[in-house]
Sequence to fold (250 residues):
Amino acid sequence: MTESKVVLITGAAKRIGASIARTFHSNGYKILIHAKNSMLEAKNLCSEFNRVKKNTAVALCADFDSQSETIELANTALSYFGRIDVLINNASMFYPTPLIEAKPTDWDSLFNSNVKAAFFLSQALYPELTKRHGSIINIVDAHVDKPLQNHVLYNMAKSALKSMTKTLSLEMAPRVRVNGISPGAILWPEDLEQKDNEETQSIQKEILDSIPMKRIGSAEDISNLAYFFAENGQYITGQIIKVDGGRSLS
Ligand SMILES: NC(=O)c1ccc[n+]([C@@H]2O[C@H](COP(=O)([O-])OP(=O)(O)OC[C@H]3O[C@@H](n4cnc5c(N)ncnc54)[C@H](OP(=O)(O)O)[C@@H]3O)[C@@H](O)[C@H]2O)c1
Fold:
């Protein structure tokens, strides 16, 4: 029997990351679920997977504001199932930083979570991914090409992630493919989801009106493409695909 492949997904306890984990698990992958604050949700997700098939998922904790925790995550993740075939850099902080209010701590928080950890995880796992002919999938944002107002640090961090995707695809070829997915409006930010007032409804309406497909996407729209990149896109590298219902054209 062939050994199962293994995927490490950062920020995977909930939302889009959890959907990516479900898609890979239902297709036979073993799952390394990284989380920071959401370890309870991560462990529950692992239990769900391990009930379907024993010893196929584990939750690992790391704060990407700590360089040592980031590197330790790569090492622990690799030792757990003894292999890693796919790294999915999904973790992210997202909040506005208007120019006059932005602080160095915001710079650190937004860059650490959106790009620095992705870089150092890619570096640490490069030898293993090379051995496995593996791939890296970076979750970017459709806004990198159409900046979101008042989010300069987030936009800059995601733009760096886009640039990293293209640059590393050259450096890691031919053994490792590196691709990106740029979601549009897929899930409302958690703070917006919790409020149900007129202001929230008007923000949501404005966004929906700007999407040619007139609806937000689903987490599965992202996870299906991630799985495609990992398993079917064997001649695709250095590409960043927008999944935004056409919003970037409008
Ligand atoms: N939602 C959308 O519509 C949308 C649109 C465009 C782009 N995206 C991109 O798609 C990806 C997934 O989106 P999402 O909305 O599902 O993400 P999310 O819920 O905003 O964040 C995913 C996870 O990132 C982790 N994280 C944040 N800071 C961290 C840190 N310092 N160290 C370690 N982990 C950290 C958190 O883990 P814990 O909860 O465990 O702390 C969080 O659950 C993100 O890269 C996002 O930028 C999403």
